[in-house]
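Operator note (shift B, R.M.): manual run for DNA topoisomerase IV requested after the automated queue skipped it. Running by hand, logging everything below so the morning shift can see what happened. Input copied straight from the record, untouched. If output looks odd, do not overwrite the archive copy; leave it for review.
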Amino acid sequence: MMRSIFALFSLIFLSSCYQQEKKCEDFKTGEFEFTYTINGEEKTSRFIRNDTLEIDYFENEIDTNSVRWINDCEFIVKKINPTSRNDAKAIHMKILTTSKNSYTFEYAAVGDKKNKQKGIAKKVK
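Run finished. Output pasted below as returned.
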């Protein structure tokens, strides 16, 4: 009885220590696709990112954003030429998990803790 309780606690302890390895550095630069849904319609955006810039291609429009890395897995994106007050808001991006060719992330306007959304970006180059 005591041995099985010890084994159970050991299993719980070891499984709680497991954390999926994140390789955020692999996604700091490159070309990516992000698919999401707006008003029930699926849309795909493509973007190219280097250490300091991100160029977004969406529905025949191109936007350029500055990128400021907080750490290997978090960064702030801000439009260089915003066209509205809402466009001028900086977005906090946090990479949650990574796989070979994609990463799962959450994002929200800087300071907005309530309206976080999640997405998956696939590295295409």
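Quick read of the result: Residues 6-16 have pLDDT under 50 and may be disordered. The domain at 21-123 is CATH 2.40.128 (Lipocalin).
Leaving this for review. - R.M.
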